[in-house]
Each structure stands twice: as C-alpha cells, then as structure tokens.
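Lab notebook page, bench 4
Experiment: in silico fold of construct C2
Operator: M.H.
Input chain length: 864 residues
Purpose: comparison with the prior construct
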Amino acid sequence: MRNRITYLLACLVVSSGSLAQSIYKDNSYSPAERAEDLVKQLTLEEKVALMMDNSKPVERLGIKPYNWWNEALHGVARSGWATVFPQPIGMAASFSPEALHTAFVAVSDEARAKNAAYSAEGSYKRYQGLTIWTPTVNIYRDPRWGRGIETYGEDPYLASVMGVSVVKGLQCLDENEKYDKVHACAKHFAVHSGPEWNRHSFNAENISPRDLYETYLPPFEALVKEGKVKEVMCAYNRFEGEPCCGSNRLLNHILRREWGYDGIVVADCSAISDFHNDKGHKTHADAASASSAAVLSGTDLECGSNYRSLTEGVKKGFIDEADIDRSVKRLLQARFELGEMDEPDQVRWAQIPYSVVCSDKHDSLSLDMARKSMTLLLNKNNALPLERGGTTIAVMGPNANDSVMQWGNYNGLPKRTITILDGIRSAMGKDDKLIYEQGCSWVERTLIRSVFNQCKSKEGAGFSARYWNNTEFKGAPAATSRLTTPFRLCTSGATVFAPDVNLTDFSATYQSVFTPQETGEVVFDFYCYGSVKLLVDGKEIGSFTNKHGSRPRAYGMHVDAGKSYDIEIKFQYFSSDAQLNFDLGFKEEADIQRSVAKVKDADVVIFAGGISPQLEGEEMGVKLPGFRGGDRTDIELPAVQREMIKALHDAGKKVIFVNCSGSPIAMEPETEYCQAILQAWYPGQSGGKAVAEVLFGDYNPAGRLPATFYRNLAQLPDFEDYNMAGHTYRFFNGEPLFPFGYGLSYTTFKYGKIQLKSSAQTDETVKITVPVTNTGSRNGEEVVQVYLKKQGETDGPVKTLRAFKRVYIPAGKTVKVELELTPKQLEWWDSATNTMRTMPNTFDVMVGGSSKDSDLQKKTLKLL
C-alpha cells in the first residue's frame, strides 16, 4: 500500500522530473509500476527503438542496449560452449516431464551464467540475453514438416505437458524471488506446421473450430495458463486470411481476452515484412501500415526493422501513440522482472558461476536424457542386447561418426561429443574386434575423398592465412598463420581463429595452390557461420552468408590432373560465433558390394543411418531427392541406405539398424532386413554413449514414440491440408508401421485390471489405478498411457492421450500405478457452444503401453 500511495503522489508531481525518474530506478516498486513510470519519460522515437529485437539504448535514462533474441531449444544455442541435450522430439520420446524439467533448469543456469559474463564485458548482442525463444509447441501434424524436429510430437496433451515442463524449468518462477530467472517463449502461435518452402505466403484456411480448439491451441493455452510463459511468438503464415502476427482473432480474441494473457507477443523474424513484401502475404501496402496493424493486433516486439516505421504510422493516423505505449510497457516490465535494468549484484540469478557451463553435472544430465529418449522399435529373437567377448562388430553408415548430426539444430557447441562409433568402441569387450566402414552417405550415391594434402601455399603444405581485426580486410593483417589440415575453426568458447585475432568483427583470407593428381570433379565443402567467398584463379565461383547459425554449402568444379589452381577463401565475421569448416575432395561412387566385402568377417553389423539436421529443419536450401526447403517430400529411408542394408542382409549379416532422425522414417523393408531397430533421434553430446549402453544392455530402453511412424507416403493426406482428418494417430484409421506411444524393452510387462469407478461428476478428478508387473528378468521402466474416446462419436479422435506416467519396476515386482483425470483432462468438444469443456459424456477409458488397440484395456466412464 505504501508503494502504491507513493507512486500516485509521484505521478502528481511528475513535472519536477527528479522524483518521477526515481521511481523506475527504485527496485522497491513493482516492475509494472516502474514500467508505467519509465514509458512516460520516453519520446515516440525512443519507444519505437525499444520495440525491435535489437533494442537501442536510451542513455539519458540509463536504459542499456538489449537484444531480445536468444535460443535454447535443447541447450543454450549459438553462443559458444553449452551443454547440448537431445533434440526436443527425442526428449519427447522420454515421456518424462520430470527429466525434461531438470534438464531445462540446467539450461537456464547456463543461460544466466553466460549472460552475466557477456554483461560484465559490456556485450549485449544476439544470443546473449535472458529472453529465450523456446519451446516450440506446434503440433507435429505431418512427418514431412522439417521443423517437427523442434516439437514435442503430434499429440496436443503430450506437447502441453512437456512444453509446460520446459517453461517452468527455464523461468523458475517463484513468488519469493524478486526477479525472474529467464523468460521462455511459446512458439509459433498458432496454426503452423509447414510447409517451410512457402511459409511466408501460406494461408492455413478452412480449419474447423473443433480442430483449432481441440488440436492446435491446447499446448499454447497450457503454456499461458499453467506455465505462465512470459512471451508468445506469432507465426509466419496466415490463418484464415490474416497474417498470424496481425490476427485479431488469434492475438486479441483468443490469446488476450479468452486466456487473459498480458505478456509479450513477439513476431517471428521478418514476419512483419511478409505483410507487405511481394513474395509474402501482400495484405498491406507498406511497412508503416503493416507495423501499425501488427501492434494493434497485439504484437509488441518485432524481430526485424519494420517497426521503425511506427513513427510514420502515428503521423499518418494508422495508430495512436497510446497503443504503442501499451506494448512498450510490457517490454519494459519484462526487463524489470528479469533484473536487467538493475545492478547485477542485486540479482541472485546473476551470481550463478560460469563453471556451470558444460559442467560434468550437466553432461550427466544430457546423458540421462539421451538414455531416456532411446526407443527400441524392433528386436527379433532378442537380437539385442549384444554379447561381449570374442565378437567382431562392424560399424557402418553415414551417422556412425558424425558429431554434428548429434547436435541437432538450434544448438550450442559442446566441449566434447561422443559419437556412436566412439560409444561402441568404448563399450566393447577387450576381446572384441571393431571394423569401421562408412559405406554410404545420407542420400547421395557418392562419398567425398579428401585431397587437402594436394594443396600447397607459398609457406608450405596447406593454406596460408591472413587475419584482420575488422570485417573489411583493411590495413595491415593482425596475424598470419598456416593450416596444414582441413579447417576446423570456431570462436565458440572464446576460441579465436588464430592468436591476436578478435573473437568478433574480423575477416580472413586463406590461399593455396591446388595441384590435383587426377582429373575429375572436385568438391569444395564448407560448414560455416559467417560470409564466405570462394575464388579460383581470381574468379568467384561461390559466395554465401549464413545469418542463423552454421550451415553446409558445397561447390563443384572440374579440374585436370597436374594443372595448378590458385584457391582463395575470403571469410567475414557476421554475428555471434564464427565458424569455418572446409575441406576439398573428389566424389566417389558408393560401392555397396565393396563395402559389404570389407565387413565380411563381422558377426554383427551396426548400421547407423537415417538422415540429418543438415537435411531437415527450418527453411533450408537442401536440393536433394526427397527434400524441399527443409521439409521432406518422401518419408522413406533414402534409397542408397536401403540398398546397403538389403545387401548386408543378403550377405547373411545380422544387421542392427540405429536410425538417427528428427522425423518418422518409413522403414517397412528394414523390418525385414534388420534384426533390430533402435530409434536414436539426434541424441546430443553424449548420444553415442547412450546408444552403446542400449546396444550392449547396460541400459534398458523405455523411450516411446511421440509421433506415428507410417509405412509409406501413401498413408499420408495432403501436406498442405490443415484439417486433422487422417493426420496423426488421433485421426488415422490405417495400420502404421509403429504406432504413437510404442517402444520395446528388454523385459516384459503385464497389466492387471484397471480400477476405475464407472461414473463421476464433471467437476471431479477421476482416479485410475492399474497394477503393472515386470514379468521379465531385468529391471525396467514402463510408460503407462491413458487414452479417451467419446462413445458414439464418429467425427472426433479415434483415441486421444490424456494421462501418462513413466514408472520404474524391478524385475519380478508389481507396482500399482496411480494416474488421474482432472476436469481439464476430461474436456471434450462441445459443438453446441464451439468450445472445449467438461460436460456429461460417456467415455471409453483405455489404459496400456501404447496407442495400439491390442495394447490397451478398456473401461467405461460416465460423466454426470
């Protein structure tokens, strides 16, 4: 009460200036009060400058620069060293919200520690702030969507539970804490799940109210109401004709009014440009009208620069300054809540030591999460676990020795990565023998054989390098060096490209003479974050700038044996961490029979295949069969891998297939050719160890599929059809290859009779008890799942998940597993009111170990 009275008195004497200013600087006032005071002292131009992700300082009022854009999809991303957890779709397979919460508490520890270190240096750049643009809780509607790898699967209840765990782990909100730890962001609101290639102009239309409220909105509602998420990011596409970031229905009616959300809405990067660009939605004439409409619809913050035109919007009458004030208050309040406006020594979270980053404790958490994500799909005749002692094991496949694949996308850089090959080598017995033969790539029928050793600079073997501590190659070089092996340069973890070179704002040239010993097509292979130009004999043959993290690029050129070629690579720092990986080599055709012959003595072949985040992801430029813009056009395992596996099978080999992917792969032939299939996802920095522990039986897998694995493309509806009919297990009437919720164990479980009363009131929480017995010889974990179906309904879900619990059960023991269905979990679609609500209904309650009918027991529950 004292603060409120003082605040009101201060407002009456605002003309005196000094007292008014003291309010926003005084942390005894609430963040809302401080924001209310500060916004009154800003000019229109200053307000607008605060509404963009790269917010400029207002030095006269002591407002520091702040960059709102940070990422931590599965570990702090794009900002140097960080613990890298499995990709979210893999963590969803754990069906363990508790483990997920623990992981993201660790992630927020690292985010705070890194922010404190950056701030102490006076650095306020992208990927250094406290506003974390994660989690992605869009429904994984179709396995072809490239960004499905960032989600928590195809089920709205699973996505809700896991998403809330992420938000609570990150934000660590506590009424006893003066400041928030970090702020999370629910994205991408709301009806958004591909395609990637046309997302800037795509219109998701003719979506029934039922599909909207029953499938697309629940995770966002859960994050807002239960998770208390501090930010929501609106999507690129249109919804029913309006850009999502300008959708009055989504942002004002549903988000703000129906759900009572009063936090920040941020536009996805360049989404406001799509309002008026020729290649976008073209719903608005220019940046001023587009920006004004977005703010009036409730979008407070832009990732981009269109909002500069808001001053013009005010002058032209498109928007009032009072509407801008509303958004600026939300932004300032968030900064006060985080303690970003106050001295670090006043903020407990700012005292987290940097030693937590990539700590042993966090590495063990990443390993634990990878273990929990491992999903065993096939195990013929108990082919797994493998026996140690006197066994010859061949390890093959494009993902066997690929650390970058394991990192997923939107990732940080771990201090070490245990590849699948590393993990298997370490797990083998002392009398076992290992053969490694990659055999093939992901998609192409070629492999690249390095000829880096055929390059020689004036100073000797390899490339000579010159560095400038500016981005324009100006002046005398700050340093010179020579690289005698393929480039592996990265500034992550404060590691400079060379001594005396800046971590940021630098440029470099690398020169050599390449004299090939053979004629053919040489490939210049890059994996970079920054701007690159490749020149051969002074002629530019390729250039690119990667703006959102490292990406692969490759250029081919015909060369003649014995002829010399002057090679020059120009590199310029762009932002965040710089990276330059480079090699050159000749493509060779994959020789399947030759590779099979190389492993002829193997007792078992572990083929680590699948795809890669270099192929699937956000709006990518991949041009390979089966992929388009980061999406997939085919869900089959790429043909070259399929042929390799079949050849191994035909040669009489026992094949264990470890599939690494962020999306469901159609593996119907592989179920014939392989003795076992382990879905390993993109398993993070310790993923290779987790894979090996499962293969050798040191860990009993209990992962479950968070998305349906279909048999083939023919089982899928049109990718651009957003109506749910035929999509996901909830509306699919066919027989999938592996169903949602499915996963095997090295032990067996038997369910006793469900204990569930036959009727309940609509405001009552319903208790379910089921005894589950571990009938095998190994300790293990079972994921008990509860599904609902409304009796007599023909247009609703065939079943839908409404409760689950991952339970440890020792061998031979029985555990009474208790679950509950709250009134919220018993909500169902009411066509009379077009709402989801709890009302009298009769349900089939199904309990078991997967969504497959034969795995479920059924009882009737009547709500009165």
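Observations: The two ends are 46 Å apart (CA to CA). Residues 364-446+591-731 form a domain with the Rossmann fold fold (CATH 3.40.50.1700).
Next step: discuss at group meeting.
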